[in-house]
From TrEMBL:
Cross-referenced Pfam families: HTH_20
Gene3D superfamilies for this protein: Winged helix-like DNA-binding domain superfamily/Winged helix DNA-binding domain
Family matches, as CDD domains: HTH_ARSR (cd00090)
Superkingdom to which the source organism belongs: Bacteria
Region listing for Disordered, in residue ranges: 158-182
InterPro entries noted in UniProt: ArsR-like_HTH, WH-like_DNA-bd_sf, WH_DNA-bd_sf
Protein name (Swiss-Prot/TrEMBL): ArsR family transcriptional regulator
Amino acid sequence: MDEDKNLPVAMTPEQMKAFSHPLRMRLYRLLEDQGQATASMLARQTGESSGQTSYHLRQLAKYGFVGEVEGSGSSRQRWWRAQSFSFEDVGTAPAVVVEGLRDWTVEAVVNDLRRSVAGSARDSPWSEAGTLTTYTQWMTSEELAALTTEMLRTLKRHSEAAEQRRKGEGKMPGDTSERAGERRVRIFLHSFSLPDEHHSHDRPQAHE
């Protein structure tokens, strides 16, 4: 997929290795769930020292996985937030690192989906607002790339609009409380070609 400054950054092999530390992966997930937090808050949630969480947050920031929340905190009490990323070109990353990241991602998605389905109420406006949809189609790799890019841009646009709305309502950086009508929302996006067994050359060809 072509580079686009408005889309999630593709993880490099070096970044994969830096991210694949168990505590860093846990800190990243907590920041995703909560929106933003300080090293001290994350230390209480993980049972680690604030020195440990602060160090690993700085390492995550060094490789672009988290960033400081602008206009909040101080040099002694920084607020952090997760940055979106994707991993597509695994390059020279060790196989064990790539497999570990993929397993971590899939496990997180499955667990979130199970909790979402189990906790959804049919008459809830949140259930009606969201979706669990699968769509399958014949495409070229170029068509799939175009579709993926368009979906990512749409996600980015709506996310930024919601953030601007919150700022307009006086939501200050570092304030993790939700307002009436708000919830943390997670969107999964995985567009991919089906495994090779679905592409049999023995399949009858269409006649012109």
